[in-house]
Amino acid sequence: MSPAGRYDRLDALRAGAMVWMTVFHLCFDLNHFGLMSRQNFYTDPFWTWQRTAIVSLFLFTAGVGQAVALQQQGLRDRPAWQRLDARFWRRWAQVAGCALAVSAGSALVFPHSFIYFGVLHGLALMLIVARLSAGWGTGLWVAGATAIALNYIAFIAVPESGSGSFFNEKWINWLGLISRKPVTEDYVPLVPWLAAVWWGLATGFWVQRHRPHWLGGSTPLWRRLAWPGRWSLSYYMLHQPVLMAVLWCWVTAWR
Fold first, then answer.
1. What is d(CA 141, CA 43) in angstroms, rounded to the nearest whole number?
2. Cα(177)–Cα(168) distance, rounded to whole angstroms?
3. Residue by residue, what is the 3-state secondary structure of 48-64?
4. pLDDT digits (tens, 9 = 90+) for 177-188
5. What Rg, from alpha-carbon coordinates, does the chain have?
6. Would you tell me how many other CB atoms lie within 10 Å of the CB of residue 38?
């Protein structure tokens, strides 16, 4: 039986993103340890487009999850500040704390390209934005499209040097209004990635109102597929250190 308030199909979709992410990171780690033919994960479209799809799916399900939580708690139509309730802040603290741990861990492994605003950093901020903007209705679709448009406009319009170059500086580039990608192992700024959260939020509200059966209808198969998706934060934090530790032991033992 599914835990109260959980939708197996949504958790299964999140689990699918996690499995894809694990395969991607396994390939990255194999490449890092020289156990596969050299690949460029930073510029090769085969890898960069996969990363885009994985992050988009992960953030989209986060947006849907926020829509479900707001609907179940009766907070959707409350004033914006009331949507940031104690339950939300408890979960947010877990995400933010894990983001700090990712920065610390990546600084040890990749000191020159550590993660200072990756998936969890972006998600922590986007969750707050999602709660505050949950009452926008169809405006969420427009907001998402605007976020993507701003990304392309900034990439073209923000100069590499001069008065506008401060958007490329580390202290402000978390906005995403950049013309040059920073040197970091993971970078998920507000623009354009808020689009995935906003569209997930809008989709979640629409589905609950017009197609609730898409989320319901649990079966033993769906419950098995959904189980990893219920522990997404723990899985996210553990899978990469475990993969790297196993491969490091392999390399150390056989070379």
1. 30
2. 8
3. HHHHHHHHHHHHHHHHH
4. 988 889 999 999
5. 19
6. 6
Distance CA 182, CA 149 (A): 20
Residue type for position 249? C
Asked if 226 and 8 touch (Cβ cutoff 8 Å), the reply is yes
Which pLDDT value is given to residue 183? 92
pTM for the model stands at 0.92
Nearest-angstrom CA–CA distance, 159 and 41 = 26
Per the prediction, the chain carries an average pLDDT of: 91
At 89-105, the pLDDT tens digits run 999 999 999 999 999 99
Sign of CA dihedral 72, 76, 79, 84: positive
DSSP string over 64-104 = HHHHHHHHHTT-TTS-GGGGS-HHHHHHHHHHHHHHHHHHH
Query: Using CA atoms, how far apart are residues 105 and 236, in angstroms rounded to an integer?
Result: 13
Comparing 255 with 123, which gets the higher pLDDT? 123
Tell me how far apart the alpha carbons of residues 10 and 6 are, in angstroms, rounded to a whole number: 8
Q: Do 72 and 208 form a contact (C-beta atoms < 8 A)?
A: no
Is 207's pLDDT higher than 60? yes
The residue ranges of every structural domain in the chain are 8-254
The structure tokens 């950093």 sit at 121
> Bridge partners of 187?
117
Handedness of CA 70, 15, 22, 238 (dihedral sign): positive
Return the sign of the alpha-carbon dihedral for residues 44, 53, 21, 192: positive
117 has which bridge partners?
A: 187
pLDDT for 162 equals 54
